[in-house]
């Protein structure tokens, strides 16, 4: 308090226009500044209550801040709602993508199995055709050998059994048969 009273007392002892300097006493300079501001407000305000003016300014500022907060809350609520909708759409799209992926893999596996079955079926058919061909070829070879052996055996039997007289009688009988066939046709 002593500094405050000293600052007012020192106002009366200012030297007139001889020197200029800085007052380093913070408390006294703030007090001087405050008194100047209040003096200007009273002089130009002429009957306007300084505290009323300050109160109105603070109320207006408070209302602007509250409106800004209210608008921000509304925007935040809208943003949260849009975010939830976007998350729901994302979950739905992810589920559909998973379903498509599963269906795609299932379709690929199904096609792969079908291709394997068709290939196995074709191989089985080729195998059966090859077996049938080889069986037929083997049967034909066996028939030829049996026929050759039978023919050789028959020729051997005929050559050993036929003598000249039997040979002559067989030829005569055949010529007789041919002659009778000729008479029938004439």
Characterize the structure shown.
This protein has 186 residues and is mainly alpha-helical. The protein has a domain at 33-123. The chain is built from 4 helices and no strands. It has helices at 2-12, 26-45, 50-161, 164-185. It starts with a helix and ends with a helix. The model has no long low-confidence stretch (mean pLDDT 81).
Record keyword descriptors for this entry.
186 residues; mainly alpha; rod-shaped
Series of secondary-structure elements, N-terminal to C-terminal:
HHHH
What is the helical fraction, as a range of percent? over 70%
Mean pLDDT: 81
Please give the alpha-carbon distance between the first and last residues.
Answer: 176 Å
- Which residues sit in consecutive blocks of at least 5 with pLDDT less than 50? none
Beta-strand residue percentage: under 5%
Classify the secondary structure makeup into a structural class. Answer: mainly alpha
Largest sheet at a glance?
none
What Rg is obtained from the alpha carbons, in whole angstroms? 66 Å
- Strand count: 0
Count of helical segments? 4
How would you sum up the global shape?
Answer: rod-shaped
What's the structural blueprint in terms of helices and strands?
Layout: H1 2-12, H2 26-45, H3 50-161, H4 164-185
Put the structure in a nutshell.
Residues 76-103 form a coiled coil. This protein has helices at residues 2-12, 26-45, 50-161, 164-185. By secondary structure, the protein is mainly α.
